[in-house]
Amino acid sequence: MGSVEECMDAAVRVARAAGQVVLEAVKQEKHVSTKSTPTDLVTEADRLVEELIISTLRESFPSHRFIGEESCAAGEPCVLTDSPTWIIDPIDGTCNFVHSFPMVAVSIGFAVKKELEFGVIYHCFEETLYTARKGHGAFCNGLRLQVSKEKDVSKALILTEIGAKRDPETLALFLGNMEKLLRAPAHGVRIIGSSTLALCQVAAGAADAYYQFGLHCWDMAAAAIIIREAGGVVMDTSGGPLDLMSRRIVAAASQEVAGFIVQQLKPIGYERDDCGERHAVR
Amino acid sequence: FHFDSSRTVCTVMADWGKCLDFGVSIARQVVLDAFEAQKVVSLKTSPADLVTETDQGVENLLISAIKEKYPTHKFIGEESVAAGASPVLTDSPTWIIDPIDGTTNFVHRFPFVAISIAFAVNKQTEFGIVYSCMEDKLYRAQRGKGAFCNDIPLRTSGLEDITKALVVTEIGTERDDLSLSTLTSNIYRLLKIPIHGIRAVGTAAVDMCLVASAGADAYYHVGMHCWDIAASALIVSEAGGVVHDISGGKFDLMSRRVIAASSRTVARGIAQVVEAFPCERDDGLPDADQAIGALTQRDGHWVSNDFLKLPCDKPCGIVIESV
């Protein structure tokens, strides 16, 4: 089966390799399709990179399970069991990838008995690697990561993403949430187009909080453990414990800032990742 | 900070290239030194409008270095203006400087912070430099000679179809009701077109350079200052993009409004849906065109007159105080 360290080493190697493929692909012409909405983009590169990652890991760890963004889109079940499970986003920031906007990442999380053991996120344009292993701290290119520890939301820089849904009600809720936080008054809100890299900015202390409705388990898995190991908090938008399949998250440098954000947010509903009917295999 | 005084002084001002090279050298040196320093943070016009000693220190260093080389030149610098200097652009050779664009990012170490230096003669921008320090990306353009990032030529995306556009904007520092509702309603209307997405990285100069480098297709904003965009506006146009007023009309450097885009079509598409809240011009002058940006109350919120296509019968130079 391989020890957790062996798995993590393999994750680092394959994330770097996949990242190089992504960086090459970003210079080529892209064939773009859409998924759930006209702005939910996917490319051939997403599928190829995920296939590369899964086939590489499967060779070393044939008994492990895999949850990947494109596999789930193709009908694979998206359910976390007790088995050692790899949770993969081959290209986080596909819209950025299509536009060559320089925030694109490969994200690989690993869980055993439904608990996150490590996370690896590779920032393709910067060629920067974020990693964390449970109980062993979080690192960026070997440097220890530490959240800002900011407790005062009026000094907070907050990141978010819009999400795939663009119907009027969703947009009104999204903008209402953002406006409420700006009135806190937070220092500012930023949108960079990659939830995993935004979460890494919180872990690095370069931002103080992140919140989003609409991200997936493969966006949260690696980043959640990186933030925890950097001394930050992650939770559900209701204030309860983080639910990987819930499509929502609040992450912050402190309980105080997270708690404030939780109080302000009006929820935006997205179908759970582990909704069985959507991914039924026939 | 060590300044190389052995460079030839440019006494005949026909070749602005030497001034450009000089600008590039000081941009790199000054900023990297400054970033190591401790930051004491103060507030300017609102709790979100930050300034640090580094802003002031860097601007002073830049201006004194330039004054030593070019003693007759004029300056418009963000912190000098905040201290009371006049921001009027004359025909004289003038350096337009933002020592730290993205001060909030700088305070947080969020990785988009830039120094912006533009140089204008006869009110025309001759060259522009934007150095995005944490990314180590030096963007530059000289009028008629193209735009570059770290010496690699830049070209905008050329996108014509706004429904495939990635649009960058800024949240800004205003936190009053009018500004916030204008900000959010603009984003709403753009997303409904639909467009691919909205980004906000926290510095106008870098946002516009992303358009110049084809990483995004358009940038729009109301409220930034001339020193934030003077350099990057030239970089965008030298990369083949367009720079307009937010109404779709002619760009006015002192108006505090801009659309920069990959094409006229995309710029027009944005101009059709975004509104401007009134903003006092950087040069403090009343402007006949200000009436175009004047607002009317409609259904409890402010709507611009040119959006409503109403004749404007209000006096010129309307200013609404920010909180």
From TrEMBL, chain A:
UniProt keyword list: Hydrolase, Magnesium, Metal-binding
Transmembrane segments: none
Cofactor(s) the record lists: Mg(2+)
Single GO biological process annotation from the record: phosphatidylinositol phosphate biosynthetic process
Binding residues for Mg(2+): E69, D89, I91, D92, D219
Domain of life: Eukaryota
CDD domains: IMPase
GO MF term list: inositol monophosphate 1-phosphatase activity; metal ion binding
EC number: 3.1.3.25
Record has Magnesium as a keyword: yes
Pfam family, one: Inositol_P
Pathway: Polyol metabolism; myo-inositol biosynthesis; myo-inositol from D-glucose 6-phosphate: step 2/2
Family indicated by similarity: Belongs to the inositol monophosphatase superfamily.
Protein name (record): Inositol-1-monophosphatase
Organism: Scleropages formosus
Gene name as annotated: IMPA2
Automatic annotation (TrEMBL), chain B:
Pfam families from the UniProt entry: Inositol_P (PF00459)
Organism in which the protein naturally occurs: Scleropages formosus (Asian bonytongue)
UniProt keyword Membrane, yes or no: no
Keywords: Hydrolase, Magnesium, Metal-binding
EC number: 3.1.3.25
The UniProt record lists the keyword Acetylation: no
GO MF term set: inositol monophosphate 1-phosphatase activity; metal ion binding
Identification of the protein by name: Inositol-1-monophosphatase
